[in-house]
Amino acid sequence: MISTQAQTALFDYPKYWAECYGSAPFLPMSRKEMDILGWDSCDIILVTGDAYVDHPSFGMAVIGRMLEAQGFRVGIIAQPDWHSKDAFMTLGQPNLFFGVTAGNMDSMINRYTAERRIRHDDAYTPNNEGGKRPDRAVTVYTQRCKEAYKGVPVIIGGIEASLRRIAHYDYWSDKVRRSVLFDAKADLLVYGNAERPLIEIAHRIAKGEEITNITDVRGSAFITKQPLANWQGIDSRSIDKPGKIDPIANPYQEITATSCQQSSSEDEVAAQDITKTPQVIQLSQHRNKSWAQKNKPWLTTYINLPTYEQVKDNKILYAHASRIFHQEVNPTSAKPLMQRHGDRSIWLNPPAIPLSEQEMDGVFGLPYQRVPHPSYGKAKIPAYDMIKTSINIMRGCFGGCTFCSITEHEGRIIQSRSEDSIIQEIEDIKQKVPGFTGVISDLGGPTANMYQLRCKSEKAEATCRKPSCVWPTICGHLDTDHTPTINLYRRARKVKGIKKVLIASGVRYDLAIEDPDYVKELVTHHVGGYLKIAPEHTEQGPLNKMMKPGMGSYDKFKQMFDHYSKQAGKKQYLIPYFISAHPGTSDIDMVNLALWLKKHDFKLDQVQNFYPSPLANATTLYHTEINSLKNIKKDSESITVPKGTIQRRLHKAILRYHDPANWPMIREALTKLGLARKLIGTKPECLVPPASRTEQAHQHYKKGGKGKNNAQGFKTSPGQQRTHGYGKKPRSEGKPGLTRFSENQFTKSKQRNNKKD
User: Fold this and answer.
1) Where is this region: Disordered (predicted)?
2) Is 475 annotated to bind ligand?
3) SS3 392
């Protein structure tokens, strides 16, 4: 049985014998540094795809300092040359294990754009240089560690390993890939913010325990041939009942893997209603007679997911497996998951117990230098420059936005630091950050205003399986009192030498409007002229697939923002962020969003096309084109998914309706939608101007057109007006009214247009 309580607090373990060496100024990256420290070897060597910055915003620094605090000698190999094993032998053989991560970002997202183009920069590398880490870095680094020192355990972690811990859709290869454990051939995977599981594992290995026997650590995953002894399995299709606060019915019944893994052909499985309870068969002849088995069998029950072979070919089962995975994320009530890959299985233990406030303070109170390793000299590391004066006040996010991977990685439960810990970090910044000007660039985290927010009901929190606490409406159990955040802001402003404390993390505005005092405090003191927020879209269809609030919340927040800005005598502006080409978004949705932007005079310089990151809910929508946010059946709702380069570029272009380079593409799309007469022209309500004569001539000859239809030698479309050239204002001035188009209107308009043609 896996305990629901943390057995040992982070800093209560007996220190490893090497604690006598004390803490290092920087974790060593070379044998020379090890010699200066008096080390003959490292106990643990961490391999990372990022440059080593000794700052609590860099995951490897946090893990390294945490292990050091346990008494271990920790070395770091940062951005090694992966073409041979040599760079992985720089610090010698570790006494205990290698820890491997791709870095703060997934290596594929770091390397490629949403259009799968190669990036030529890398914010986590000195001088912003690209190409300093391999694709699928976790896999490559692990294989090199294994080559360097055979028999030395390798533990993988970080965002890349976390989001690939089970079979997952991979956007870059456009296929479902196996768990990264199978490709990397690592011994163990730790997911999420891994301090708790990794420290337990390190101490157990240090005591001589074989890593193959470490199978009961929360927040870990490993490969096994058989289910663990004394555990019962239940088919995932019998428990797909999301959205309830009450515990899942029990006792669970035992089954073999056959119902999910062997018995049905793929066609038969696809035809089944997969929420139907399968035939129950005994998993094994051995039954545990313990009290837990007899009285609380759900405490020793794991869930069988459809196999890798099934989910890679069957989108219904993939969507179903994704639903189960996202239900089993509550540390208190989640069950282990098992998914067969060929003749072996991945076993995924429940998430680690969240850190207490005292533990969070300990993690962020370690002796970070808050600067890059001296070996980088004067080289600039953009990611460090961006966060060097920012402070992370909490972890986790209960928003559940489908396109975001924070929940899959950090969990829904908010883990906050104390005020004293945060104020002490401000003092550290004053002392350690070169050239500090007195401005704290951010007090935040995944979301700026979730600090100290929690569920008011322990029972509800312990059993809840809802994907979001704030969608479709804010849960009645959620505490939305921002008083702790307000008090923190006020105290931070009073620290001697602090001129300004800015809030740069995303503000969850649907939460903020529940507490006007917070909005007033934020707007009056912590906005540097602009505040970035993320409505993501204006249309209800896409917003529902994002699990984001409607524009009513945005409008209310903007009203409060403008009111308190005026009250403070300041001119301040909201900068909204939007996503294009998100699953569930039609062309007409994008047109309506563009019209909203034009009405409010927003001209977006940068637009983010939806990026399907592994294991995110929206990635499941993208891959399967099935609404997996609802119960999955053979006739589940299909959704519109913008796929392919042309359509994805179109959606991005529509958001940048003001850019002349996008006008030809937008005009073509509006014509196909039957909206050319309404939205192409010089009137204020039009989205783009008609083509200039130069454009028409270019298009005419590009299409091989012939004939002389006017003085310039090209045709003029019926009713088309001559217009100014690119970059000039139309004759009609003033802001347009917002004209929205429904899908029905679009269909009728298109039909009329086709008849005329």
Assistant:
1) 686-757
2) no
3) strand
Contact criterion met (CB below 8 Å) for 307 and 260: yes
Question: pLDDT tens across 603-651, in order?
Answer: 988 788 999 999 999 999 999 999 999 888 777 889 999 999 999 999 9
**CA contacts within 13 A on the Cβ side of 3:** 7
Comparing 277-286, 367-376, 614-623, 627-636, the range with the smallest average pLDDT is: 277-286
Residue 752: what are its φ and ψ, rounded to 5°? -60, -40
Tell me the sheet residues that pair with 543. none
Residue 591 — φ and ψ, nearest 5°? Answer: -65, -45
Q: Which residues contact 171 (CB under 8 A, 6 or more apart)?
A: 108, 116, 611, 612, 613, 614, 619, 622
113: which 2 tokens? 């754009």
Using one digit for the tens of pLDDT, what is the confidence trace for 651-680?
A: 999 999 999 999 999 999 999 999 999 999
Helix axes of 587-599 and 645-655: crossing angle, nearest 10 degrees:
20
| Cα–Cα distance, 336 to 228 (Å, whole number) | 10
Sort strands 168-170 and 175-177 into parallel, antiparallel or unpaired: antiparallel
- Cβ neighbors of 582 (< 8 A, separation 6 or more) are 403, 536, 537, 542, 545, 546, 610, 618, 642
For 675, the token pair is: 């909206």
Pseudo-torsion of CA 169, 171, 174, 178, nearest 10°? -40
Six-digit token string for 234? 């239940």
d(CA 176, CA 611): 16
Kindly state the average pLDDT of the residues 23-33: 97
Q: Which helix (H) or strand (E) holds 391?
A: strand 390-392
% of the chain residues with pLDDT over 90: 76
Dump strand ranges (E) for 581-655: 608-609
**Torsion sign across C-alpha atoms 78, 80, 82, 86:** negative
397 is in an annotated binding site: yes
Q: Give the Cβ contact number of residue 715 at 10 Å.
A: 16
Q: Are 64 and 45 in contact (CB under 8 A)?
A: no
Here the tokens at position 251 are 């006792």
- 379: its two tokens: 């080289």
Q: What angle do CA 197, 77, 171 make, to 5 degrees?
A: 70
Q: What is the pLDDT of residues 483-513, one digit of tens each?
A: 999 999 999 999 999 999 999 988 999 999 9
The CA-atom distances, in angstroms, between 145 and each of 139, 158, 269 are: 10, 17, 41
- pLDDT for position 745: 60
404 is in an annotated binding site: yes
Identify the H or E element spanning 444: strand 442-444
Separation CA 131–CA 137 (nearest Å): 11
Break the chain down into helix, strand, coil percent, rounded to 5: 35, 10, 50
CB 285 within 8 A of CB 242: no
Compute the distance between CA of residue 402 and CA of residue 381 in angstroms, rounded to an integer: 31
Cβ neighbours of 53 (radius 10 Å):
25
